[in-house]
Design goal:
Helix content: under 10%
Radius of gyration: 16 Å
Strand order of the largest sheet: 2-1-3
Number of helices: 1
Strand content: 5-15%
Structural class: little secondary structure
Order of helices and strands: HEEE
Oligomer: single chain
Number of strands: 3
Length: 84
Amino acid sequence: MSFEDDRDKKILSGYYPPKLEDFLARGWELVSRTGEREDYGLQRCAACRWLYKEQLEAVPFKDLSDAWKCPVCRTGKESFEQIG
């Protein structure tokens, strides 16, 4: 993948970059690949910054009930933001 063409670039302040598949869908060319990302499925509580890591939990974040609360600050699921 080369970054010579900046038409598809986005400002990603505070967020992980898009997935490789997003770049490939835009027509970018994959030059080499060194491994799989391990930062997928990260949801961050906006109140206390606690991270819900899907790879460590038994249930994907989207499948949690609407009544689920942050285990640290007890804020509702709606205050979480996806960061990875």
